[in-house]
Amino acid sequence: YKMAGDSMFPDVDTDGSEKSEEMEIVVNVGGVRQVFYGDNLNQYPETRLAELLNCLSGGYDSIFSLCDDYDPGKREFYFDRDPDAFKCIIDVYYFGEIHMKKGICPICFKNEMEFWKVDLKFLDDCCKAHLSEKKEELEEIARRVQLILDDLGVDASESRWKRCQKCIWKFLEKPESSYPARVIAVLSFLFILISSVVMCVGTIPDLQVVDAEGNRMEHPTLDSIETACIGWFTMEYVLRLISSPNKLHFALSFMNIVDVLAILPFYVSLTLTHLGAKLMELSNVQQAVQALRIMRIARIFKLARHSSGLQTLTYALKRSFKELGLLLMYLAVGIFVFSALGYTMEQSHPETLFKSIPQSFWWAIITMTTVGYGDIYPKTTLGKLNAAISFLCGVIAIALPIHPIINNFVRYYNKQRVLETAAKHELELMELNSAEGKAAGSRSELEDLSREGKASPFYSSRIKVSHSDTFIHLLSEEKHYRTRLQSCK
């Protein structure tokens, strides 16, 4: 870019007789002066810089509608914008695309592009991905703020049943909403632990009793505790289902499916015990009941409902499917190769334990994962060498994808903490602005805009405040704005 001097500007006739292609303009953005030529700017006539070419003939009203200040002596346009973002944006006039520099806030950069009237289609795909990620974060923050606002707000137009539904839903689903809700969450957590312990203790032979047919069964006391726990789980699930705002979404949710799987075996086995004997042989009924009782292990997954750490682990694993797939692929290739080599090398030994390649898969699995039960092992020298190479390759194959999986977990965990903090910050900003009489609108306006499919004025304006740039509610009345450079940093 060429630095501007005062002598570079020809006189511009007020009638606009000079051709815009031959004009030069100086733009001062945050103290950084740049020279632009008309032939470059006219490539994109709808941008703000291109409009500056013709604004001089329109008088000061036209000039100040486009810029913050203007020096008629130097014929220099002043803008109180972010100079770093501006240097990236003007690349569109020379290269036809824009790359966002590292360290610039993507949301602020988007706002800068909108100010300079440059279309987002000129932003490179790699930068668009970063911008999309930030947009998703803001949408998640907005969703969390809206949920909190919905909990705090009371709509007088709603029926008593609707208000009761909301209270029950908040009572069971949001332990942080009140002290009684926190107590219910702790009780639910204890019932899950008690039920899991009872399931394990009930399998101890010394604590089992023998029925009239000579079959061992759980102690009646443990059975009563199990029944009480199932009663609690059933009541909790039914109340949550009744109070849920979206019944279909509730029924298809993964955690709620786990709840059903934890409850259903009890009632099915109870039905089979009392009614199945009339329809099938008693031995078949007992086998079916035993198989259903094994499904009680699903209730341990109910702990994830009360543990943010387990939820974070689940989401991190979902985001690591690619790495987990690579891990399985590495192991599958290694298992096939080393089991085939092991079978071939061990055939010369008369007491070989490698009877077939499929049987050798088990040996390859426990060797590559460094478990090594010792039930199958090589006896020839070449077989032992193959085993040594296999477990070394197994360690490498397992170690390679582990680091990305851990990074996904740490990244997601930190992101959730940041989003939670940001949502609380947005609420604090709203409270401060509301106290100062600067709230964006009433709750009725929020609902009207929500019905139109727009973002809530409460959180959309506040998100723009705290993330995009302009308003500082704690400043004096004389100055309410800050520069984009200050905002990005």
TrEMBL record:
Sequence ranges assigned to domain Potassium channel tetramerisation-type BTB in this UniProt record: 25-126
Domain spans labelled Ion transport: 182-416
TM ranges: 183-204, 248-270, 324-341, 385-406
GO process annotations (BP): action potential; protein homooligomerization
Pfam families per the UniProt record, alphabetical: BTB_2 (PF02214), Ion_trans (PF00520)
Family: Belongs to the potassium channel family. F (TC 1.A.1.2) subfamily. Kv5.1/KCNF1 sub-subfamily.
UniProt GO molecular function: voltage-gated potassium channel activity
CDD domains for this protein: BTB_POZ_Kv5_KCNF1
Gene Ontology annotations for the cellular component aspect, listed alphabetically: voltage-gated potassium channel complex
InterPro entries: Ion_trans_dom, K_chnl_volt-dep_Kv, K_chnl_volt-dep_Kv5/Kv9, KCNF1-like_BTB_POZ, SKP1/BTB/POZ_sf, T1-type_BTB, VG_K_chnl, Volt_channel_dom_sf
Annotated protein name in UniProt: Voltage-gated potassium channel regulatory subunit KCNF1
Keywords: Cell membrane, Coiled coil, Ion channel, Ion transport, Membrane, Potassium, Potassium channel, Potassium transport, Transmembrane, Transmembrane helix, Transport, Voltage-gated channel
Topological type in the membrane: Multi-pass membrane protein
Compartments, as annotated in UniProt: Cell membrane
Quaternary state and interactors: Heterotetramer with KCNB1 or KCNB2.
Segments forming a coiled coil: 415-452
Functional description taken from the UniProt entry: Regulatory alpha-subunit of the voltage-gated potassium (Kv) channel which, when coassembled with KCNB1 or KCNB2, can modulate their expression and their gating kinetics by acting on deactivation upon repolarization and inactivation during maintained depolarization. Accelerates inactivation but has relatively little effect on deactivation. Coexpression with KCNB1 or KCNB2 markedly slows inactivation.
